[in-house]
Write a structure and sequence with these properties.
The chain has four helices and ten strands; from the N terminus they run ααααββββββββββ. The chain is of the alpha+beta class. The longest helix has 33 residues.
Length: 223
């Protein structure tokens, strides 16, 4: 008998055993786990069947599923979309604006900066003291209508949004009426202070409206 024939004869039982093992793995593990086919009941007994459904869900192959949105029916025409998703999306005519400014306030100083904002437009803002001491600075965030719009409101109309003492504040603001909206700051500590103010939104203009030192008015701009 040749050496080749001897090797084939000796390897024969090993090949049979390997094939049997592979078949068992296929039937007991692969088919239940990947295809949900459980011929022996072993997949159900061990919980492997669950892997089949999980695999399908993660793969996202169910492209025929029906998607639903919690919005009213809308037409695919652009103007109809703008109308039907009102409240979720607001388009702006003005260009997007963003700036960071440093306000310098002398000892016993006061300053007021305002932004001209359309009605229902939102301003995202952040301000902080660059050299904080003590309780910080007195601030008042408020708004007035412009002179052109003043006749539509009661005499002396203004609206306060927040007021207090602090070292900084972050937030967003949506204008309830068109006009001038912004911050008045008063230095409560000895020595000059610096406030870094960052705003982003669709305001049309930014002005320093008022500045005074120890009661002496240096700048006062009419609305």
């Amino acid at each position: 008998m040749s050496k080749s024939s001897q090797r084939k004869k000796s390897n024969g039982p090993k090949l049979v055993m390997a094939a049997a093992a592979a078949g068992a793995l296929l039937v007991m593990f692969v088919l239940p786990a990947e295809h949900g086919v459980d011929l022996t009941g072993f997949g159900k007994l061990t919980g492997i069947n669950a892997l089949a459904s999980t695999t399908v869900e993660k793969a996202g192959t169910d492209f025929g599923q029906n998607l639903s949105f919690n919005v009213e029916e809308y037409d695919l025409e652009a103007e109809e979309i703008n109308r039907s998703i009102r409240g979720m999306l607001k388009l702006e005519d003005a260009p997007f604006m963003s700036e960071t400014i440093v306000l310098e306030i002398d000892d016993l100083g006061e300053i007021e900066h305002k932004f001209i904002i359309p009605e229902n437009s939102t301003l995202v803002y952040s301000w902080k003291l660059l050299n904080p001491e003590g309780d910080g600075v007195f601030y008042e965030f408020h708004g007035h209508p412009s002179t052109a719009d003043a006749s539509n409101y009661p005499d002396g109309f203004e609206m306060a949004y927040s007021k207090g003492e602090g070292r900084g504040q972050n937030g967003s603001f949506t204008a309830a009426f068109p006009g001038y909206h912004g911050w008045y700051f008063m230095n409560l500590e000895e020595g000059p202070i610096q406030i870094e103010l960052t705003v982003s939104g669709y305001y049309s203009e930014h002005k320093e409206m008022y500045r005074a030192v120890d009661g002496k008015v240096i700048n006062n701009v009419e609305f």
